[in-house]
Amino acid sequence: xxxxxxxxxxxxxxxxxxxxxxxxxxxxxxxxxxxxxxxxxxxxxxxxxxxxxxxxxxxxxxxxxxxxxxxxxxxxxxxxxxxxxxxxxxxxxxxxxxxxxxxxxxxxx
Length: 109
Hints:
The protein is α+β, with helices and mostly antiparallel strands. The chain has a single domain (10-102), classed as CATH 2.40.50.140. Helices cover 17% and strands 40% of the residues. The protein has two helices and five strands. It has helices spanning 86-96, 99-105; strands at residues 20-31, 34-39, 44-48, 59-68, 71-81. Strand 1 (20-31) and strand 2 (34-39) form a beta hairpin. The protein is globular, with a radius of gyration of 13 Å. 27% of the residues are buried. GO terms for molecular function: damaged DNA binding; single-stranded DNA binding. Keywords: Nucleus. Belongs to the replication factor A protein 3 family. It is found in: Nucleus.
């Protein structure tokens, strides 16, 4: 079975409705089981946090299911520390979605 979870930014969320993705992001706020995060391109989305979310750092990569273009249901999170160059992360995400690279990364150009 093939389990792809491409990295996406806010602009690309709508292309992955109902699918599992990876979202490198900056935590803006957490309120109970909801978080507002800023994705690599500067767009904000709301995340429904799982009970075992274990979010400790300012920057995390959230793996989850895209529910709407601006909401994600989290499955797990990887803590990435407190200092990430999000412009470089966004550039990498955009490169992964080019027609040439899409076949290697399982992304949608």
